[in-house]
Amino acid sequence: MKLNVTTGSNEVQDCLTKLDVDLVGICSVDDFKGTKLEEMALRLLPGTNSIVVFAMEVFPEILGLAKSERITGAGSMIELLERHQEFLGSRLTKSAYDVAKVSRKNGLKAFPLPAAGCPIDTRFLSSVFSYKHAAQTAGLGYIGRSSLLITQNFGPRVRLACCLTEAVLESTKVPIKSVCSGCDVCISICPAKALGLPGEGKLYEFNKFACSSFRNASGGCAECMKLCPAGNN
């Protein structure tokens, strides 16, 4: 039997306080109405009323040792970063499914989106859902010149997952300004030369294909995330 939306939404809201993640943000349908984010959300779950975004910190101790250079036969520290991110991803994905489970238990449809493995249109290297734009809309941070979400406490060193739900949840959207200082370190150090100065009205200039080609050839890269000064205080 389908429960009252208010009752179910309260159950979901309460669930959010018990999750094992570092950050939780919520954007309600009014926050993303008329945007590309709304189009993406409604394509996946037509009755979406809220988007819940989860974030966990990437440990700087592990990230700091990761290098894009790979020597044949030598151990690569970037492999440790990959295992670390897989662990964080498992926690984030579990949280997305926990919220979806509570939502569905209360008669409200939900669509959990995992930390890794969201389908990508390889023609444009674009995901079917933008986690970082959902996170920015929910007030978790601001997209900087690296094209990464930059949070107040962790800078760009976060992993994300999301859950779309019919539950009507309280938005965490707040007026925020960019925590990207415009130091352009990410642009100057990018080994793929994939980042450039953004044009007027743009947050970033990013060549996805150059980045992807370099990462595939080198075995991975995290230079922009590693060297960004944001969140290092």
A few lines on this structure:
The chain has 233 residues and is an alpha+beta fold. The chain has nine helices and ten strands.
Secondary structure topology:
Layout: H1 5-16, E1 23-28, H2 29-32, H3 36-44, E2 50-57, H4 60-63, H5 77-105, E3 110-113, E4 120-121, E5 126-127, H6 131-137, E6 141-143, E7 149-151, E8 158-165, H7 185-189, E9 195-196, E10 205-206, H8 208-218, H9 223-227
Antiparallel strand pairs: 1-2, 2-8, 3-8, 4-5, 6-7, 9-10
Helix pairs in contact: 1-5
How many independent structural domains? 1
Spatial shape: globular
Label the structural class: alpha+beta
E-strand count: 10
Explain what this protein looks like in three dimensions.
The chain has 233 residues and is an alpha+beta fold. The chain has one domain (5-227). It contains nine helices and ten strands. It has helices at residues 5-16, 29-32, 36-44, 60-63, 77-105, 131-137, 185-189, 208-218, 223-227, and strands at 23-28, 50-57, 110-113, 120-121, 126-127, 141-143, 149-151, 158-165, 195-196, 205-206. The strands form four sheets. The protein has a four-stranded antiparallel beta sheet, sandwiched between helices. It has a two-stranded antiparallel ribbon with strand order 4-5. Helix 1 packs antiparallel against helix 5 (77-105). The longest helix is centred in the middle third of the chain and has 29 residues, at 77-105. It is globular, with a radius of gyration of 18 Å.
